[in-house]
Amino acid sequence: MEQGEAASSPAAEEREKEKEEEDDFGYRLFPDRNKKPQSFLVRSLFTFHNRCQLMLRMTLDTNPYAQLLLEAMKQSGCTVFNDRHFSCENCDGCVSGGFDSATSQIVLCQNNIRHQSHMNRVVTHELIHAFDHCRAHVDWFKNVKHLACSEIRAANLSGDCTLMNEIARFKFGLKGHHQTCVRDRAIRSILAVRKVSKETAEKAVDEVFDACFNDLEPFGRIPHSKTDAKRAYRDFQNRDRYNANL
């Protein structure tokens, strides 16, 4: 080693390795995850945070997609509590929300969610990830096929790919367009949170697509609209009553 060259300690190398691993798991998109929580008084001064909390409450109280998922998680032994399992935070500009499996917490990007219908979709999408985390041994960090499966289910069942949403994105299609949308959005989600090639993401999605696209739990159907979601919620409640009488 030449004079003036700094030697890196094993501890420093280990910290750098851990940082790289965290980046690989998408935490770079959620910078507030590692910050000390702000006091209620400080948070109350920020309009984004207030608006996020109000929209979240509206979703949990009135949206049938979210209500069905909350009921399903409760029956699976994973009761969701607003203050514990949701966190409104500032995020990178490319994401609207995320599921932190390490803390079993849903992150809502208060700086990127601007209207109620968007909040409804984000909460539903992330609750599907939480439901999968509750009911199955999902290896979110090391098995890209597990991640792909949950992303397929979230895109398929959350309303992300409804006709109106696709029209708003200026995307139009005929037969099979819903499946195409689900596939594309699942691939995009993987690429947003994992440092993998597009080919790797596409391969993972394609290998599990049929099985995961057809896994409709807990909805029992693809809810293409809020009306569909209400029917699915009613059917879910009736199914539970029937099972209770067996």
UniProtKB/TrEMBL annotation:
Its EC number is 3.4.24.-. Residues 1-31 are annotated as: Disordered. Residues 1-11 have a biased composition (Low complexity). One of its GO terms (molecular function) is metal ion binding. One of its GO terms (biological process) is mitochondrial protein processing. The keyword Hydrolase applies. It comes from the Eukaryota. GO terms for cellular component: mitochondrion. Keywords: Hydrolase, Metal-binding, Metalloprotease, Protease. It is an enzyme of class 3 (hydrolase). Belongs to the peptidase M76 family. PANTHER family: MITOCHONDRIAL INNER MEMBRANE PROTEASE (PTHR21711), MITOCHONDRIAL INNER MEMBRANE PROTEASE ATP23 HOMOLOG (PTHR21711:SF0). This is Mitochondrial inner membrane protease ATP23. It comes from Balaeniceps rex. The lineage of its organism: Eukaryota, Metazoa, Chordata, Craniata, Vertebrata. The gene is Atp23.
